[in-house]
Amino acid sequence: MKKYECPDCGYIYDEAIGAEHEGYPAGSKWEDLPEDFPCPDCFVREKPDFVLKEG
Fold this sequence. Notes:
Strand content: 15-25%
Shape: globular
Distance between the termini: 6 Å
Order of helices and strands: EEE
CATH architecture of the domain at 13-49: Single Sheet
Structural class: mainly beta
CATH class of the domain at 13-49: Mainly Beta
Largest sheet: 3 strands, antiparallel
Radius of gyration: 10 Å
Number of helices: 0
CATH topology of the domain at 13-49: Rubrerythrin, domain 2
Strand order of the largest sheet: 2-1-3
């Protein structure tokens, strides 16, 4: 599973954990999230801005 980081606030989207509060359960792949997926913490950055951390 991969992890992606918001370059603005440092939020990590971990595919193994997902983003339950936003409607993406554990195991949700990054490529399955919409292109306009906003950072759940800062709402400043969207999916294209995130940086792959590991995976």
